[in-house]
Amino acid sequence: MSSGCPPQSPAVAKCEVAVEGECPLLAATFAYWDNILGPRVRHIWAPKGDQLMFLSDGEVTFLANHTLNGEILRSAECGAVDVKFFVLAEKGVIIVSLIFDGELKGDKNTCALSIILPQTELAFYLPLHTICVERLKHVIRKGRIWMQKGYNIISVLSLEIVPIMELLASMKSHSVSEDIDIRDTVLHDDDIGDSCHEDFLHKAVSSHLQTCGCSIVVGSNPEKVNKIVRTLCLFLTPAERKCSRLCRADSSFTYDTGLFVQGLLKDSTGSFVLPFRQVLYSPYPTTHIDVDINTVKQMPPCHEHMYNQRRYMRSELNTLWKTDSEEDIPPDTVIHTDETFTPDLNIFQDVMHNDTLVKSFIDEVFMLKPGLSLRSTYLAQFLLLLHRKALTLLKYIEDETQKGKKPFRSLRSLKTDLDLTVEGDLNIVMAFAEKLRAGLHSFVFGKPFYTSMQERDVLMTL
């Protein structure tokens, strides 16, 4: 019998996943609608070890069935994935379920990939909801191809279910606090030279803001790494800080797609290899900061990042579709086979644009006496200034384009009128505005698509 077909017995396959630390996830399930037997659970993933709350296999099956009830008449576009969020107070659990159509044994079935958590973890999970959902959506795209070709979808789903369990466990123990004490950051030092060189801190914060607040901090000293992580998190919102992670002192976490700031330790040889696919699939471009050698590099801007991400995603799915057997290409392999798109694995570039906003802030904040609340207040005013500049930029573009009805053609006027003639300042405010209005970069720079080098040439002439 094909491994893509459901088992004929009512027994549910289950695998226990060894996760280091306390995993708040109770279970993950893959269920489908059987036209004869109704909702059936195909597979259960459960973290191994002691848990504060335990669900029996029967309870997990009941909860998984609950998500598919009423979906038999589901009407959705081909390939659509519906996200449903259930809070079952009587069971004390929350269920996040992704409903999609797939083929099992040649028949079209309604399927559900669900994760189950205790209701007490609701506040912990909500900031991470978007991260988990986006990662599960993409593995479903690959899984639907695997199902249609008659391959084992469970092996594909496990490639993301297990890392999400590990992510939630790591965030439970090492997530950044919503309220950061400035005394635990570089901004509390008496002098900027106490912890790092002035130019390094300036470049790190500037690039961090230019890449929408997404950064990777790597190094050999966990205390130094975490101090820079907390410093960068000062420039994030409380919700974004909950999606950031400190490094672990005894061993390094793996890189996780979707986190805003994450600290990672180098291995015994002094190196850390970043996974290309996961970095490219991050929702925003990323800054790479090495605290050992004081280097700062960044990915291309948002519109180029999204362009590369979507082309690579299509290339990956096309390659999976062309496979002749399940063993030809593992679903987590970096794709190089599409001749129309060869990804540049060296995706981090030097920070090309200087700015005046962060430079002035760094210079002035260290003129204030440490140990008082002055520096925290000054930081809050700086972030408020950037937020208002971003809102002004959005309003300016709305007026110039009649709310998107016309293409945007007056970048030179925008830079002059909003006092953003310095390229780094423009990039920082554009990144803030991108988070307020997704797709702004692509709209402003328009089509045809400019590479980062071409874009820099264009900006220099305006």
Automatic annotation (TrEMBL):
It comes from the Eukaryota. GO terms for biological process: autophagy; endocytosis. One of its GO terms (cellular component) is autophagosome. GO terms for molecular function: guanyl-nucleotide exchange factor activity. Pfam families: C9orf72-like. This is CI072 protein.
